[in-house]
Amino acid sequence: MSAPHDPQPWPLLSSRQGPDLVICRARFDRLRNPRTGAAFDRLVLEAPDWVNVIAVTPEREVVLVKQYRFGTGAVALEIPGGVLDPGEDSRAAAERELREESGFTAQRWRYLGSVQANPAFLTNTCHHWLAEDARRTESELALDEGEDIAVELVPAADLPAYVADGRIAHSLVVAALARWIDLRA
Question: How far apart, in Å, are the Cα atoms of 55 and each of 12, 14, 29, 92?
């Protein structure tokens, strides 16, 4: 069954800044639904772009990081990643985040594309990078004061099972891995 019409962009009637929420800034937009004419207030979170890094060693192990996540209240198994600094491109951020969070660096990099984290209310994009022939070159991690991270190496062949059984559950990590390998277990 096809839709009777194509949805159209909603005209912006007004916008006001909300509070700075550390990792994003709230904005409140008043928009008009072009289908019904009704006006609605909607929350938009203005956030910087993010990067995720799939780092693969010469032994075909993937560099994973374990860290506590405030939203779920649990330790999560993920790939290295983080926020782009102002003016920083996604590759430079990927190289920096990999080095800081894992102590690994790589000479071969490939861009795997990007996803919109949640376009329902977030403005940002998450860029996915593949770092091949990654090697541990730093003996100490360069963690921010608010980070507590442990590094784990997992055979690449095991990743579909990690996603299937929920050991890896972060949606942006799963999206990055899906750009690189077939996750059907």
Answer: 41, 43, 39, 14
